[in-house]
Structures are given as structure tokens and as C-alpha cells.
Amino acid sequence: MSATAHSVVQPSTGAKLAASVVVVLYALVALVPLVWIGLTSIKTPQDSIAYPPKVVPFVDFTPSIEGFCSLFTTRSRQTPEYIASLPPPQGACEEVARSRSMVVVGSSNYVPRFVNSLIIAFGSTALSIVLGTATAYAFSRFRVPLKDDLLFFILSTRMMPPIAVAIPIFLMYRELGLSDTRLGMILLYTSVNVSLAVWLLKGFIDEIPREYEEAAMIDGYTRLQAFRMVVLPQATTGIVATAIFCLIFSWNEYAFAVLLTSGAAQTAPPFIPIIIGEGGQDWPAVAAGTALFLLPILVFTVLLRKHLLRGITFGAVRK
Amino acid sequence: MNQAPLIPGFVTRAAAATPAGIASRMRGLSDSAIAWLFITPTMLLLLAINLFPLLWTIQLSFTNYRANRPNAPVRGVGLDHYEAILTDPDIWLRMQATAHFVFWTILLQTVIGFALAYLIDRKFRGHGFWTTLILIPMMLSPAVVGNFWTFLYQPQIGLFNYVVAFFSGIEPSSFQMLGDVDLSPWAIIIVDTWMWTPYVMLICLAGLRSIPDYIYEAAEVDRASNWRQFVSITLPMCLPFIMLAVLFRGIENFKMFDLVNLLTAGGPGSTTEFASITLKRAAFEAWRTGYSSAFAVIMFVMIFGLANIYVKALNQVKAR
């Protein structure tokens, strides 16, 4: 039931104005760290640590691609004589490196780590959705023995602190050869995500009337065909919402990643903090890596906000 | 029921309601086969990656096993690790630090989150847009954003110190959020509140939207003041939702690892060494696998207690 324009509970114009001022102020303050990530990524190292801080591009500081170059390349320091002896620089990053008495010697590990994040996040999301949809459908439609206990067990796996399960998983993965492999991380993130997927999707599938499938089966479809042709299309919105949640979790996960991966399967969250330049953290490079890493989720959030709201409230508020 | 179940307890409502003539036309897998087929892979995965490790942890907690010396002889030590942990005054200090963090983050997030939800519920122009902007921090990677906050907290060059100095007149290099024993817990509390207030806000917003208008209309007829309406309608009707948010944030922050590991890694000294950091140090730095397994079991029991309360509260909310 929503308030109509004539409702006595409609807030006054003054109340709305006051509310909007406070909310907008909060939003603007909350977004400062994110804006600062963006600004830092286009500064030179000197500008990034300037005091007082440089805020407005083109006015306070000249934007630079140095942060992105430092993120994507590895460089080595050379003598001015050696650099002078080289042919003219090829490409913008080589030029930046030369201006700092360095030459580009190769590409950094950022792209492989980012690709690992992509493969692991999408792989575990796909697997969670397949397993979660099937399990949710079975729990929604069939009388399963110990249904409530199984559903509680599934939910309770989400309550376990990652650090606590990490010890035996570390030992088990070492035995099975799954340490530092993408497959190992996909299975691990799937096991964390599937609990949420089952609970969310069960809610969505419960809302699809059984009569649809029954009608399809009376028309001669088998139960599996009815599931595929009737239930799956009806559940698409719910599946998309659930997939976004799984994706956000596996994209952002850090504790398992830092303890169980070290190289081949390392994702970006443990990698970005260890981007070190000469003399400590290279903040423009860290900011560039952070900004690129946050971008997909930022786009998702804005595009799919309506689905997100429903998923976050997790069925608890379904009336 | 005109059709006997294939396996007791596995008959579906659809099959039960289907006349025998139509049931005979059903082809393919039986419902019970589908139920097994659909549930088993998920359960196997959860058993392999959750239950099996849990049982292994419990077993390791009674031994002196060290994961960095897999070939060393393993000896059972009984309840020694549990006794050592539960009587260790340092562990209780770690638990106090964790409790301090959980208490303040919940208090701040609930107050600010509820206030924001209450204001957004006034439905001013553009409230949907601003709500989406407020949600962004909670969608991002705590580790990646937390790492960037260490830059914002730099005493000489960081934006945080600059802004505080600008408004308070304190010399910006005179305080170190991450290096001061009194300030460092607050450095983490601030970042956690920044990230997760939107979450509490959303749950509170859902609660506010669940209150039917007619209750307020009745209160208007009775000429109840706004404050009176807030105290006797809004707050009690929203309470189950606030409790839900508190419990969920409580569980999450009790096991908090990503933000604190990147912001302070437990320092300075051990002032921000929350339970999960102690556990990580014991397990993956000191390699005291048996001891850290016992600590993990103790954390499990505490979390499981909280999880039970959470599910009970969830059921209470649903029962209303």
C-alpha cells in the first residue's frame, strides 16, 4: 500500500526538503573516497602526495597516465647515458618511464590477476546458479526428508568465518593439488555462494504457481521438460538477481584468496595492496588498479539497482 | 491420494493430485529421482568444503600438528589447546577488542542507517537516485577499498587528516589514525561504518515500507503528535528489521578480516588484533595448526550461537 497524494501521512514539503538536504549531504561525503580513487589514478606520484591535496584536474594538477603505466608495466632504473643511447621511445608508457630515468622491461601481473578474478567470479557464479537453481527447485516442489534441517544446514555454512575453515581447506587442497588453482577457488566460492543462491531462488520459485507445471505435465511434458520450459523462464528475474549477488561476492572476496592463492590463481583483491613502487606504495598505480577493479561492480550497481534491493533484503521482508 | 508414492515421503503434490490415467502418461525420471539428482551435487559440495573441513578442524584441535612440518610426528594433546586459549589473558584482550569493534560499528551503523532510511522514506524528489549512490560503498571489495583508505589515513599526505585538520584546526601531522593505539580501532570503525551503513539503511527502509499507511491515518485521527507516532508506531514496527540488521552485522563483524588485515593487520602492537587476525597469525604465520584449530572451533561455537539467534529472529520477523 503506497501513500497517495491525498493521504494524511504524506510528508510536508518542508519535511521533504530537510530530508533531501541531509541525504544528499551524506551521499556526497560517502562518495569522497571513491572520487579520490579516481583523481589519484590520474595524478603523478608527486601530485598524489602533495600537501595541501590537489583536487581539480587541469587547474590544480595536470592529469597523467603514469599511474596506469605503472600498473600495467614493470620498469627498471637506468643511467642517463644508457637512456640517451636508446632509440626514441615507442608508446606513451615508455615515454613516461624515460622521463623518470627508467625503461619498460615487461608487463606487470595486474592483467593476469584481473583475468583470474574474471574467470573465478564468473565460473563460480555459473556453477552456483546451476546447483542453486536445481536444489532450490527440488526444495520448493518436492517433499524432501529433513527439508527444514537441510535448509538450515545450507544457510549455516554461510555463517562460518572464512579464516576458521581456511586451515583444513588449505591442507585438503594441498593433498588434492587444488592449492593456488582456479578450479579450487571456483569450487570454494561456489560452496559459499550456493547457500545464498538456494535460499534466494527458493523464494523466487515458491512464488511461481505450481499449476503452470501441472498444466504442462497434463499436456504431456515430463517433469524435467516442465521445469525447463515453464519454471526456468518464469524464474529468470530471480536467477539474474541471484547471479549478481554471487558475482559481487566472488569478485570482492579477499580472506580465502589471500590465504589459499599465491601466484597462478591469485585474484586482484590480494594483489592490488602489494603494488609497490620505488620507496613504498605507488599510490597512483594502486588507485588505477583499484578504479579498474571497482568499475564493473559500479556499473552493475547502477544498472541493476532494483534487483539488488530485492536480493539484499533476502526475503526477510517479503510480506 | 490415488497413486502410491514410489519412495515413502517423496510423492509430490502434483503427482498426488494427478489422476492415474494422466500419471501413466508421465515419462522420464520420477520425481524422487529428480529430487535426488537436483539436491545431491549441492549437498556433496557443501559436505566436502564445509562439513568435512569442520570435522577435520575439530580433530586437529586435539593434536600438536603443524602444517609447515607435515612429516613431523603428530601427538594427541587432549584438551590442552582449549585450556591454553580459554585461560590466556591475551586472548581475552583480543576478544575485548573484537567486542569493542562490534559494539561501536553496530551502534553507529544502526543509528545512521535508520536515520537515513527514515529520511529517504519521506520520498523527496530523486530519492531513488541518491539511495543508489549511498549503496555503492557496500557493493565494493572491502579489501581493495580498505587498502586505499590506508592512503587516506596517511598523517602527512592523507585526505582524511587534511579534512579533519581543516575543520578542527588540529595540526594534520599530529595524529596518526593507523599508528596510534587509541585511534587505530576507530580508523577501522570509521571505514566499516562507511561501507556497511547502507546495508543497515536498506533493511530499515524495507521495515519502514512494511508499515501500512492506515495505522498512521488512525493516529492522525487521534491527533497523535509526530513524535508520539514515531515512538509508538514507527519504532516498534521497525524493531524486528533493526534487530535483523544488528544480528547480521554482528556476525559479519565478529569474523571481520579483510578491512582490518589491510588497514592495520592487527597493529599497532596488538590493539586492533581482532579474533580473526589472531587466528590467521596462529595458523598461517606461527603455523601452530593444532592450536589455531582449537581457536577456530571456539569461534565456530560462538558464531553458531549467534547464527541460531539470527535464525530465531528471522522466524520471529516472518511470524509477525
TrEMBL record, chain A:
Residues 114-304 form the ABC transmembrane type-1 domain. Keywords: Cell membrane, Membrane, Transmembrane, Transmembrane helix, Transport. One of its GO terms (biological process) is transmembrane transport. It comes from the Bacteria. Its main location: membrane. The chain crosses the membrane at residues 17-39, 118-139, 151-173, 185-205, 225-249, 283-304. CDD domains: TM_PBP2. PROSITE patterns: ABC_TM1. It is a multi-pass membrane protein. It is found in: Cell membrane. One of its GO terms (cellular component) is plasma membrane. Belongs to the binding-protein-dependent transport system permease family. This is Carbohydrate ABC transporter permease. It comes from Oleomonas cavernae.
Automatic annotation (TrEMBL), chain B:
The chain crosses the membrane at residues 34-56, 101-120, 132-152, 186-208, 229-251, 291-311. Pfam families: BPD_transp_1 (PF00528). It comes from the Bacteria. Its main location: membrane. The keyword Membrane applies. One of its GO terms (biological process) is transmembrane transport. This is Sugar ABC transporter permease. It comes from Oleomonas cavernae.
